[in-house]
Every structure is written in structure tokens, then in C-alpha cells.
Automatic annotation (TrEMBL):
It comes from Dactylellina haptotyla (strain CBS 200.50) (Nematode-trapping fungus). InterPro entries: Pectin_lyas_fold, Pectin_lyase_fold/virulence, QRT3-like, RHGA/B-epi-like_pectate_lyase. Keywords: Membrane, Transmembrane, Transmembrane helix. One of its GO terms (molecular function) is polygalacturonase activity. Residues 129-353, 488-552 form the Rhamnogalacturonase A/B/Epimerase-like pectate lyase domain. Pfam families: Pect-lyase_RHGA_epim. The keyword DNA damage does not apply. The keyword Transmembrane helix applies. This is Rhamnogalacturonase A/B/Epimerase-like pectate lyase domain-containing protein. The chain crosses the membrane at residues 29-48.
Length: 888
């Protein structure tokens, strides 16, 4: 398609956003790029403002038509259709009612018998499930329950992973809070490997007392002496907090925080209401997150506060957050990449503040704002990114489907420059797409400030990925709150042992056969895996219409010869057979292998879609090696960088063939999943040594029609690739995160898994020997792909953090970006049905570390022109390198 210039369609249309003939007719996607250097401060869009714009738009796709159609009224409220708890009801009773006495409730989790066992714990009486009332908490609103709650969590000296432990998988705890008002005067310390779970039907209220002392009502990582954290923030894994109201209004408005959340992967906060003081005096914060490597938050409501949520983390996914009457709804102190999806901000002073660090040292790397709504708030987003701000990619912002109403300025810049205008009160205006950062496409191979204006970009997203209201579909985790305890089938009560030794294959398969595959009209049964480590020696088949929930993270561990033949790989959990339809839901489970396991595919997902009935996995994690019982531990697999290449690979440290395989008919939604081949041991004290494990492949998606959604998703340390999408379409990913194995390129990615053509494995030997790779870079080319997209279309990533921190265990390569040659590859020439000229692949908010080239693709397969997006092409950010948009 021609690359031509056309004058701005705004030039002769100054009527502004409110004029009936502003806007343009959109018959198909159009993408414009504003190119003029120096216009970053004066971008306009649809004539939202009329000052200063003198730029031209480069039209990349489609034709410019102008001036006939007003911007459509906004679509209905971006509210998820499946909401487990109506927190507004809770809040209205909570803040008016007198102290509620403890009431019984029918929540299944409280009523089932608790049979969970922690097989590796020294204390044979060790209790996994703890009800705080049984530890002396009163929940009456007047008794100080701090000590009792903390006793329920810690369960005695050294029973659990507290200060100086750093990490451990042997002492899990699910701490349950019945309905009630729990008065606390000091932090509730959420230790490592803890889930704090309230009753979702009548949510417990944690009330900070008037004289509360400490960092926050719930603290996930206490600061000890000399400011030293209990847990290394980037390694603070495996925790969940859900179903609470946290009330700070008894405290003085000048202090108080709801949750200090300094966490890494496999962590979540879900369904929590924060009640804070309102008004000019308030200094309260709902969430204070100083740093970490997360993570996932969803379904939260914030009332009042200086700051609803104060965020700082490498990467994070946050969805369905609602803010009322906060001075600032969201303050991001620093990040590399952050997805804010379905954010609703009402009546705040400032919506989202990303100015941290100032224009010379922008702390916020990139933010993706999707399907959100800002109402009666003076400024929606405040940024200090401008044409000379530093680092050059700092403050990259992509927003899509943002509805504003009663917002004076949508994007306010340095020196109060209005970058993007606002709209009247009681009038909804939709901003389909707007970007502040750098963009690349076939037509802009050298890249340019995106400031891309793509009207009706949402048209680019296939309907199958969206809900009835036009937002990207979400499906919150099922809590089964209306299902009574008698419909939960305990696996331990039905013959499974869960001690990490017994072979539980037969028992588990039989339970699934009898209680899964619920027929239409039958009452749904939920298969409950009491906490335990369930060793299986053969594939477990999970038929459609099966519901599985774990306790904490109940573990399925593959073991034995069946899973150790790389020539004949076998799934450990096979969800559906090709073409089978029906719902499968899995939550709070963990999958691992007992090594060696060269032929284990931890899960194969074949269940096919059925209308908008969406199957899924929530808080399901894969953890390969690095924990007690896996035989993939430092005694055998300690890192060994001095040994050379093949000689060093110990077959006993081959840890899996593949993590997750989404088959040709597979479709599902995944939320908060961490697919981790361990880089260090979690249990081996005191050093938690680094280990070298070899898992062939991370996630392979071959789903021919999709849809597949990945919210808060990470795949790390796999040999050939972390994510590979082949012959697929209709995929949503945000945020995804990867790390290249620390040992590579010693050995190189070609070892120890020879490429299997049927699985479209990358052929490193061939590809890295090609002419475009310089001799001295070949070993850096032979590194695991962060994301490989093959012959696929209609792929949307809203935030990706793809990192290569090591070369042969040394981090010296990070700064010079010489840990890896290229991170993302797009191959094949599949064209989208909707847009026959392109694949319709949108990579938004792509962040890489340690790699020379962020992405590569071949522009015109016939001419074979290779496009390489270099990290040093003005893409430097605070720590990562960032591109706002790659559109192929
Ligand atoms: C504006 O949009 C919001 C959120 O989508 C919706 O709740 C509200 O009804 C809309 N208001 C008008 C006047 O259309
Ligand atoms: C994490 O944040 C705290 C509080 O701001 C700070 O003191 C600490 O240095 C940070 N740690 C790291 C590793 O960045
Ligand atoms: C969802 O699944 C049920 C059966 O499980 C079926 O009756 C219904 O038609 C499906 N809904 C859609 C929209 O496909
Ligand atoms: C890997 O690093 C070690 C030092 O940690 C060094 O002895 C060894 O020669 C290196 N091997 C390769 C292949 O670079
Ligand atoms: C590419 O995908 C199309 C369908 O989208 C399929 O027909 C074709 O066989 C695929 N090509 C390869 C090389 O797999």
C-alpha cells in the first residue's frame, strides 16, 4: 500500500469535538501517524483542541474521509457482565451499619471438612486451613483482633516462612475470615505462601483502630531492621488476598494505608473495598506498592484517600478497579509496563498520575489504558512526557476505548500544556485510540512518534474477543459462592492421598470421571483438591463440563517413565480431546514435574469454544523444579557456568518437554498464571541457589480460531521459546512477561531439544546461520524467543515485558544490550480476514531488556525485506527499552 502524505483532516474543521460534523466516517481501520518533529506537545485528535497543531498525518492504511459523522455516543458502562459480588451493596451497609455480630453464612469454604495436608512439613499436625475465629479473633468490632489474626497466619514459631526465610513451599496456609468487623491496631502480616480469604457473601471488614501503628492494615512484605525486607521483593511469590473491606476511617486522615503490597509473580488481590477519608486533608492510600515483579489485581473499589492506589513495580496487570472521590485515583511511581483495564474513575481530582521523576527522569516506563471510564474528574491523565523529556521512551502511553465525561483535560502535560482536550459534564465522549510514544509498521520501518491516531481501532479487534458491550471480554474468577458445601467433592475423601509419594492417578481419574462431565440439567459438582501434592504417573483426562478448585495451590506432580520420553511426549493434564465442547474451570491449582521429565507436557487444552461460554483458568500456576520433592533441586541441578555446552547438560535436569499446549480447537481465558521453569530453588535454605533446568518449550498456542485471553500472564526460562503462536488468530495478551534462561548461550538454544517440525519448533541452527546474523552474534541469536508468532493473525498484546538478563549467568550484558540478539519474531505471511493487507498483529507497550533487537519481521515475503526494530533506535526507557506500537 502506498505511503503517501495527506494534510490533516483537522485543518479545515475547527468545530471541535462538540460540533455535529466533527469526526470522520469510519468504514474501516485507519491509522495515522503524526510525524512532525516538535509536535508532541500539540497533538490534536478529531479537533479535540485547536491550538498549535501544524503536523501532517502519514496515512498508513485506508483512506482519509472527513467531516460527516459525529463521534458516537459512548457504549454502555464498561462493567463486567459476570460479577461475583456486588460490592456497592456491601459498602452501603458497611459504612452505615452498627458493628455486625459474627453471623454464620453458607459459604462452602467455611462449611466443608478440611483435609488438606502439607506433606513436607516437619509438623505432622500442620494445619493448612485456619479460621481466624479458632485462633481467638472475635470479629465483634471492639476487641483488638491483631494478635489472634497474626497467630492464625503464623501458627507458632518457625511453623511458617516468616522473617529471614525468604521463600518456602512447604508451609502453605489458607487463612479464612468469617463475616465480622475485625478491629486491628497493627499490621496483619501476610507471610509467604499465604492466602487470606474472606467470606464473599458477607465480606469481613478489617477496621484499623484509631491508634493503628504500622505500614498498612495488611503487609505482604514487612520492613525489618535497617529497612531490610523480609522477602526479596522480586521473589515474593505465591500469595492471594480476597473478599475484604478495609476501613481506614477511624484513623486520623493524615495517615493510614490499606495494603502494603510488595510482591512478584503468582500474586493477586481480588474483590476488596478500600474505605478512606475524603477531602483535602486526607493522606490515606488504599494500596501502597513500592516495588516488585508482579502481578495481578482485580475487582477492587476505592473510596476517598489521597491516592486510591500507589503503584510501583516492574510489570503489572490491573483490571476492573473503581475509584470514587480520591484526590488522585492512581499514582504510578515507577514501572516498566502496566496494563490498566476497565478502570472507572468518578469524581476524583486527578485520574492517573504518571509524572513521577519529572520530565528529566521519567519514572514511568509505559502504561496501557484499555476499556476505561473517567467521569467528573478535572484531569484524566497527567504526564510529563514531551519532546525533550528523558528517557526518550519514558511515559509511553497507549489508550484505547476511553470514555470521558465531565473531564476538563484528558491528557495534561508538562507546564500544564493541554495535550488532549476534554468534554462537558454529562456527555460521554469515546476516545477510540490514542498513543504517546513510538510506533513502527511496514510503512514506518524506521519508526516514529506514534501519537498514532487510529480511529475505530476497536474495529481491528475481532468481535469474538469482545463482550456484548464492546469491551475485551473479562471473566472474573469463579468463587462458587452460591454453591453449597455438599456439592464439593473432596479428592482426599475419595481415595487420593496427596502426600507426594502415593500414585494418585487412578483415584483422581475416577473422581473426575464420576463428578466431572456434568450433563445439561445435572447439578454442577465442584472437584475440590484439598491441599496436597498429588503424584500422577499417567495422563489425567479432564472432560468438558468439569469444575476444579484447589486449596491454596494444590499440586499435581507428574512422575515416572511415562513422562520422560522426549520422542513420545505426553500431557499430564489433558483438558478435553480435540473438538470436544463444554466448560472447564480450574482455579487455585499448581502443576509441576518430578524430574527427569523430558516428555512431560504439563497441560494440553483442547476444549473448544461454545458461544460466549468461556472456559478458563484462574490463579493456576506451573512451577517446574526448584521445590521440595521435584528432584530438580540444587543437589543435582545447581548452576554450572564453567562447564561447556553439551557436556554440562545432566539428563536428570531435563525438567519438561513443554509447559502448556493449546491445541487446534482450544479456547480459554487465563487470568493470573505464571508458567515458571525455576531459575532458583525456593526451599533450599539459606542460599536458594540458582539451578539450571531444561524445559523445551513454554506456551504453544495452535488454536485455529481462538479466542484466547491471557490476563496477567508470564512464561519464563524455557529453552526454545516462552510464547509461540502458530496458525492461530484472535488472541488477547496483556500483560505478558518472559525471561530467557539464565544459562544460555551455554548451552545454546539448540540443545538439548532437537527441533520437532510438527510442532513448528524454531530451527536455531539454520536461522542463526543466516546471512543477516553476524558471526559474532550467532550465539546470542541462539536464545529462547520471548514471543514467536508464526503464520498468525489478529493478535493483540497490551503490554509485554520480555527480558534477557543474562549471558551464561552473567548480567554484564544488560547495559550493552548484548544478552540476546532479538526477542520477538513475526514470521509467515498470513493475512487477516478483516484486513487483507496485513496480519493485524498489534504489539502495544512492548518492553525488552538486554536484547539488541526488540522485534523482527519480514515486510514483504516476496521481496524478503527484513525489518529489525533496534532497541537503541531511540527506544531507551528507564530500565527497559519500549515501543508504543508495532503494527504488522
Ligand atoms: C456514559 O457512559 C457511562 C459508562 O459507560 C454510562 O454508565 C452512562 O450511562 C453514560 N452516560 C450517558 C449520558 O450516556
Ligand atoms: C523498594 O521500595 C522501597 C520503598 O520505597 C525502597 O526503600 C527500596 O529501596 C526499594 N527496593 C528496591 C530493590 O528497589
Ligand atoms: C452455554 O452452555 C450451555 C450448556 O453448558 C448451553 O446451553 C448454552 O447455549 C451456551 N451458551 C452459549 C451462548 O453458547
Ligand atoms: C561461562 O562463564 C564462566 C564463568 O562464570 C566461564 O568460566 C565459562 O568459560 C563461560 N562459558 C562460555 C561458553 O562462555
Ligand atoms: C497458514 O495459515 C493458514 C490458515 O490461516 C493455513 O491455511 C496455512 O496452511 C498455514 N501455513 C502454514 C505454512 O502452516
Amino acid at each position: 500500500m502506498a505511503h503517501r502524505r495527506s494534510p490533516s483532516y483537522d485543518e479545515d474543521d475547527k468545530s471541535g469535538v462538540y460540533g455535529s460534523h466533527s469526526g470522520i466516517i469510519n468504514t474501516r481501520i485507519r491509522l495515522y501517524t503524526l510525524l512532525t518533529v516538535g509536535t508532541i506537545l500539540s497533538y490534536m485528535f478529531y479537533g479535540y483542541q485547536s491550538s498549535g497543531f501544524r503536523g501532517y498525518q502519514y496515512q498508513i492504511y485506508g483512506t482519509v474521509e472527513k467531516g460527516q459523522k459525529p463521534i458516537e455516543a459512548a457504549p454502555p458502562a464498561p462493567v463486567t457482565s459476570i460479577v461475583e459480588v456486588d460490592v456497592t451493596k456491601v459498602i452501603s451497609t458497611v459504612f452505615t451499619a452498627a458493628p455486625t455480630p459474627v453471623v454464620s453464612s453458607s459459604y462452602w469454604l467455611a462449611n466443608i471438612e478440611h483435609r488438606g495436608v502439607a506433606p513436607y512439613h516437619a509438623d505432622k499436625e500442620y494445619q493448612v486451613f485456619r479460621n481466624v475465629l479458632e485462633f481467638g479473633a472475635k470479629g465483634d468490632g471492639t476487641t483488638d483482633d491483631t494478635a489472634a489474626i497474626n497467630a492464625a497466619i503464623s501458627g507458632g514459631d518457625f511453623a511458617r516462612c516468616g522473617e529471614k526465610c525468604d521463600s518456602s513451599t512447604i508451609s502453605p496456609a489458607l487463612v479464612y475470615f468469617p463475616p465480622g468487623r475485625y478491629l486491628v491496631s497493627e499490621p496483619i502480616v501476610a507471610m509467604y505462601y499465604t492466602q487470606l480469604v474472606g467470606n464473599p457473601i458477607d465480606m469481613p471488614i478489617l477496621v484499623a483502630s484509631k491508634n493503628f501503628k504500622g505500614i498498612a492494615v495488611i503487609d505482604t512484605d514487612p520492613y525489618g531492621a535497617f529497612g531490610k525486607n523480609w522477602y526479596v521483593n522480586q521473589n515474593n511469590f505465591f500469595r492471594a488476598i480476597r473478599n475484604f473491606v478495609i476501613d481506614l476511617t477511624n484513623m486520623d486522615p493524615s495517615e493510614g494505608t490499606g495494603i502494603h503490597h510488595q510482591v512478584a509473580q503468582a500474586t493477586s488481590i481480588y474483590n476488596v473495598v478500600f474505605k478512606m477519608h475524603e477531602g483535602v486533608m486526607t493522606k490515606q492510600k488504599g494500596i501502597f506498592m513500592d516495588n516488585g515483579s508482579g502481578g495481578f489485581l482485580s475487582n477492587l473499589k476505592f473510596y476517598g484517600g489521597e491516592c486510591g492506589a500507589y503503584f510501583g513495580n516492574q510489570q503489572f496487570t490491573t483490571i476492573n478497579l473503581e475509584f470514587h472521590n480520591c484526590k488522585t485515583a492512581i499514582y504510578i511511581n515507577w514501572d516498566w509496563v502496566w496494563l490498566l483495564k476497565s478502570i472507572r474513575i468518578y469524581n476524583c481530582g486527578l485520574g492517573i498520575d504518571i509524572t513521577s521523576g519529572g520530565p528529566d527522569k521519567l519514572g514511568v516506563g509505559s502504561v496501557l489504558l484499555l476499556d476505561s471510564y473517567v467521569k467528573d474528574t478535572e484531569v484524566a491523565i497527567k504526564t510529563f512526557r514531551h519532546k525533550e523529556s528523558n528517557p526518550p521512551a519514558g511515559g509511553t502511553l497507549v489508550m484505547q476505548n476511553l470514555i470521558i465525561s465531565g473531564v476538563k483535560t484528558t491528557v495534561l502535560g508538562w507546564n500544564d500544556e493541554e495535550i488532549f482536550g476534554g468534554t462537558d459534564k454529562d456527555r460521554n465522549t469515546t476516545i477510540p485510540f490514542w498513543g504517546h510514544g513510538k510506533g513502527y509498521s511496514d510503512y514506518l520501518p524506521k519508526g516514529d512518534s506514534i501519537n498514532v491516531v487510529a480511529d475505530e481501532t476497536s474495529d481491528a479487534i475481532p468481535a469474538v474477543l469482545k463482550d456484548a458491550k464492546g469491551k475485551i471480554l473479562e471473566r472474573p474468577r469463579p468463587l462458587y459462592r452460591h454453591i453449597s458445601a455438599d456439592r464439593f467433592v473432596s479428592v482426599r475423601a475419595n481415595g487420593a492421598v496427596g502426600d507426594g509419594k502415593a500414585d494418585d492417578t487412578g483415584a483422581i481419574q475416577e473422581i473426575i470421571n464420576s463428578h466431572g462431565n456434568v450433563r445439561p440439567g445435572e447439578q454442577k459438582k465442584i472437584i475440590f483438591f484439598d491441599y496436597g501434592i498429588y503424584r500422577v504417573s499417567q495422563t489425567i483426562y479432564v472432560p468438558p463440563n468439569t469444575y476444579i478448585v484447589g486449596e491454596m495451590w494444590s499440586v499435581i506432580m507428574s512422575s515416572g517413565d511415562m513422562f520422560n520420553d522426549a520422542k513420545n511426549p505426553k500431557p499430564v493434564f489433558q483438558v478435553g480431546k480435540s473438538g470436544e465442547e463444554g466448560i472447564v474451570e480450574i482455579s487455585d491449582m499448581l502443576f509441576q514435574t518430578q524430574g527427569p521429565a523430558a516428555g512431560a507436557i504439563l497441560m494440553e487444552w483442547n476444549r473448544s469454544p461454545q458461544g460466549q461460554n468461556v472456559s478458563g483458568m484462574w490463579d493456576v500456576h506451573f512451577r517446574v523444579g526448584g521445590s521440595r520433592g521435584t528432584n530438580l533441586e540444587p543437589n543435582k541441578c545447581r548452576k554450572n557456568p564453567d562447564a561447556q555446552n553439551h557436556a554440562k547438560i545432566d539428563d536428570d535436569c531435563i525438567s519438561a518437554f513443554m509447559l502448556l499446549h493449546i491445541g487446534k480447537t482450544g479456547s480459554l481465558l487465563m487470568e493470573n498464571m505464571w508458567l515458571w521453569t525455576s531459575d532458583h530453588d525456593l526451599d533450599d535454605e539459606p542460599n536458594h541457589d540458582q539451578i539450571s533446568l531444561y524445559t523445551g518449550r513454554g506456551l504453544l498456542c495452535e488454536s485455529q480460531e481462538g479466542p484466547v485471553w491471557m490476563y496477567g500472564h508470564a512464561v519464563e526460562h524455557n529453552v526454545l521459546y516462552n510464547y509461540q503462536l502458530v496458525n492461530t488468530k484472535n488472541i488477547f495478551m496483556g500483560v505478558i512477561q518472559t525471561e530467557t534462561p539464565y544459562f544460555q548461550s551455554n548451552p545454546r538454544a539448540r540443545e538439548p531439544f532437537p527441533p520437532v517440525p510438527e510442532l513448528y519448533d524454531p530451527d536455531f541452527e539454520g536461522a542463526c546461520g543466516a546471512a543477516d546474523v553476524p558471526q559474532d552474534k550467532i550465539h546470542l541469536c541462539e536464545k529462547s524467543w520471548g514471543l514467536r508468532i508464526l503464520n498468525s493473525t489478529d493478535i493483540f498484546t497490551y503490554g509485554a515485558g520480555l527480558y534477557s538478563f543474562f549471558e551464561n549467568y552473567s548480567t554484564d550484558c544488560i547495559e550493552s544490550r548484548s544478552c540476546q540478539r532479538t526477542m520477538v519474531t513475526i514470521e509467515g505471511d498470513a493475512r487477516s480476514e478483516k484486513f487483507p493487507t496485513r496480519s493485524n498483529i498489534w504489539l502495544m507497550g512492548l518492553n525488552t531488556i538486554g536484547t539488541e533487537n526488540m522485534a523482527r519481521w519480514v515486510k514483504d515475503p516476496e521481496e524478503g525485506e527484513l525489518i529489525l526494530i533496534r532497541a537503541d533506535d531511540g527506544n531507551k526507557n528507564s530500565f527497559s527499552d519500549t515501543v508504543g506500537l508495532i503494527l504488522v
